[in-house]
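Assemble and predict.
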Amino acid sequence: MPGDSVLRWTTNHKHLNSKERTMTQLNLEQGCLPGRSGSTPIFRAEGLALHFDDGRTRALDGIDIEVGEGEFVAIVGASGCGKSTLLNLIGALDTPTAGERYFRSRPYSTMTDLADFRRRHIGFVFQSFHLIPTLGVLDNVLVPTIGAPGPAAGHRERAVTLLERLGLADRLRHFPATLSGGERQRAAIARALINAPDLLLADEPTGSLDSANAAQVLDLLSEVRRERGLTIIMVTHDAGVSSRADRLAPLRDGKLDQSAEAAR
Amino acid sequence: MTLLEFALHNLRQRPARSLLTVMAVALGVAAAVALTGIASGFEASWQKANDARGTDLIVTRLASTNAMPSPFRAEPLQNQLRSYPKVRDVVGLLSEMLSVDAGAPPLFVFGWTHDSYLWQHLKLVAGRWPANADEPVIVIGVVTAELLHKKVGDILEIEGRRMPVVGVFESSAAIENGAVLMTLDQAQQTTDKPGKVNVLNVKLDPAATTADVDAIKARIRVEMPGFIAITSGELVGQNTVVRIAKAMSNATTLIASLVGILIVFNTMLMSVNERTREIGILLALGWHRRTVIHLVCGEAALLTLAGGIAGVLVGVGLTWQLEHLDLLRGKIDANFPLSFLLMMPVLAMLVGVCGGLYPAMKASRLAPSHALRQE
Amino acid sequence: MKMPRLSVLIMLAAIALPATAAPTAAELAAKMREARLTPGFEARFQAVNVAPDGQRSTPIKAAVVGQFDAAHRRLLLRGIAPEAIRDEIRAVDYRAGGCSRASDGNGPADPFAPLFGTRLVAWDMLAPWWDWPRQSLAGADRVVGRECVLVRSRTDDRDTPPIREVLSCIDADAGISLRTQLFDSHGALVRDITVVTTVRKESGLLAARKVTVAVGDKRTEAETYSGDEHYEVPVGAFTKLEGQPTTCR
């Protein structure tokens, strides 16, 4: 648990009971990585690094991080500090140069089928939505289910329910170009949730939205998180967005900024 | 949505490119289908002619690499063959490909032993048959009559001899419908091959078994050096023209396949390069790399399947048109076995998969994070 | 003991080498004479004249019967079609010493005259140059995709024969001259006979199926459409030649 680079983070105590709050404080004092006391973190990384150009460029340089089940963690930092890189590594979209990642104590390096892991446990939401422009909303949401086990009718039913829940019931056949920014992001969230993931990775999900739509999307994410016990790790540079998170993970030049964390 | 629906959707997004690819594949398949149909039909027609005549075995010169087997003296062999058990009849035949009228394409000219079983399957539609072996007259097939605009009473010049048409006949074998028929004696005289034939037709007892046939063949091999007894199918199979036609159709199929692979390779590579970000999204959303491969190869297979089906239809249609050309009428009777027609689209799909394999592998190996950054 | 065995092998190789040396021109000429031997053949061909502008004449059809054995080297040509040449006859034979006879059925004829209005010449079909004493090798070439050896045949000087030299490009193993160029006494090219397609005889040797005979910028294309390698030459087929004057050139 202890390590030289220890992430100190501010906890949002609203969801902890008094005992957990006490334990959290104790862990902080001991320099341990806090989480729900006694529970296995959903994600953990040790010494995570990603270098390019034979080590000349260090996008990430030794990150230790833990995320507990059901938490909302915001990765913050200036542009180019490695936020999206860290998110990609958590989502197994990239392979680190050094370090190890764990999903519920299982090392990523032992997983033979990372695509299957992503499909079953990870949901992605992107800043640019990344909807397929030639497919309707419903078909976009169904894309992650292609090749997945289970009958097509079941996937379809789930997708329709999700879209209704996210307020897009009357947009099923619409193409992304005909939707507003907020609607597109909601469709992208539905797509991210179609396979009932445990971990939602959101890369600047409100970056392309106005404040009203941004707030709407954040509310939605919070509701979904509560309903499903979803863990959310979000990259953002927006203080308003990060304030909604349980914890912050400040990055600076590929490293964890302990001083920034201490200041918060 | 299924993978198939997604693949079809992707092909519809580039209609011009998809259509051009389908057309290119279709052309290659059509050429292969047409040539194979013609070669097969030529072979089948000859076989049908012999089967229609009721011939069980054909005796001809060994290793005849010319279009027509070399002529030989009929009598000694004929008498010898008639002495064999289970042999009911031995009848000589002379066939040549001759130009019979100025400006007309060459036709098959057959000389058949007068009053032999060879004539029995023909149906006279006008006029009469030659009265005797020496009568210097001809009967023509219905296709020949139409092609040359000749009827009973008209004259045809064959190798310098002006011979009157006394009858028009119809045969179940297309190759005979486009031929000119006279008695063997007259054919021998016309072509200056007195006493000669190029084929001896052997009719066996109906009770003759396969073992009897094999025994006769073996005996001929020993007792008649330089000659061979074969079934009509074997004779046609050895025929140089048939072999060349088959070789050409095989070569065309091979070339069409290679060209098809290259066309599909190019199309799918372009498609994959244009969809880098989309593929990155799919991988990020949990698509397995093999699903990406299935998608790309599936799109390629769908294109080539459509091309294969279209090619079969165009090839059959094209051959039908060729059959009705004056130059070829009566000479080809294209044959398209159902198994062959079904095989061509399957082969086309295989071509598609082969051509799409490298682009599919390339797409599946994209690093999702890099792909997502592409515009 | 290995060294003596090696020296024996080297000796044997040295003896064997001359035996596998390339054939001489005389040997090739003998091979060509032998390839043409036949107790009798019959062939029918169609010939068409092609003008420099590509215009093609009405085709003619003719039959040729030939006999090339120890005693005879002769041809009988008969026109088949069109009517203008029907039953027109040309019989020609070649004898030792460069002498030939020709008849048109009624009287003597010129063996060097063109046949049936084409550029085909009966004398060419006899190929008498393979009997000429002066044969020499002249290199190699490639005709219709086949490698061939150039053999130059020359006559002894005599009265002005129309053909004094023949350059043949032969595939001796196949027994065929793929290109034959005939030159006059001034060395000018008189005729160029090129084989376009071939047909394999029962012996395995090749015969020309289609040839082009070029005279200047004009040519005749002749193609065989029927044939009999075992033709029984009727008795009296060549009686037309009896009594005709012999020309020795």
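The mean pLDDT of chain C is 87.
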